[in-house]
Model the fold of this input.
Amino acid sequence: MNWLLPEYIADALPAEAARIESLRRQVLDHFKVRGFAYVMPPMLEYLESLLTGAGQDLKLRTFNLVDQLSGRTMGVRADITPQAARIDAHLLNHQGVTRLCYCGSVLHTLPATVSAGREPLQIGAELYGYAGIEADLDIIRLLAGAFAAIKLPLARIDLGHVGIFRALAEAAGLPPAAEDNLLNLLQDKDVPGLAEACATVAAPWREALLALPRLYGGVEVIARAQAELPALPAIAAALDSLRHIFAAAPELPLSVDLSDLRGYHYHNGVVFAAYCPGYPAAIALGGRYDGAGQAFGRARPATGFSMDLREVARLVPVPCVASAILAPAAGVDMVLAAQIAALRGQGEVVVELLPGEMACEGLRCDRKLVRVGERWIIEAIQED
Done:
């Protein structure tokens, strides 16, 4: 059947598409009034550009194709964040802080989760040029504000810091293969597997690595981590960063998870994941990724977040369908045409029926324009 779509690829029908578009406008307006400039990177780029530097983790998720003009390998973007870093570093070339936002489709070779599609509509914001923890806090507040703007409550925002595991792996002298193995076990919360893999790791690094899956919860976890983890400068600095965010944003539903290391090879500081009630996976992800623009000629401090607007739209309460007005086709009736134009100018949906058309499919039409003498007035449509 030629009309079947590939697995994990789906159309957005009118009701869903309208909901997604409404959310897109609300979130982008939320970014705009906070100084984040909108950019529209291309869907395709040369593969080395998409996968350079911070984009290397995307290699297995990126579709490849050959450019018929140049013969070079191109990629269909799997993430807009590296493109935003390229724009900041290579095109804008601002010396101070740059705030960018974006919204566009990305394509994945495989779905990120069992419930996700392969064509997410990625919307996000990035802040470049400021290395302080204040930038991380600004981005986390921006995320929380976006969910408040669309009236979707957050159950929690988990904070972590990849510098903690990185410092432990370096101090323990783990080879890259062993480091990646432990990273995967921590991500899966596989405590028995982690214990087995750490059997040959020397103390005190073994005990510290085994403690990470237990270090989750409220702000008190930071004090527990400080007591249980080795007193390495990198770990102390990471915990201080997390403590600062908690102290500065008591209004946010913050929590700690020191074994959540998604994007470990991409991020290099504070990371965070936002969760909604009743949704099993993170609905938004973000964190610090300093140096992302180095491959494009200018390394810059960077932090940001993104989310899939299609998934968000499924969680937002379905709004009432806006009502519409039916009208006969204006034709040469200038009075009717003027009345229709005036109503549309006021934001009303007015559908001009074609000859022989009796109703409009897919819209809730509860009123109609009828002629009374020389005037056109609005009347309620009586349901049968």
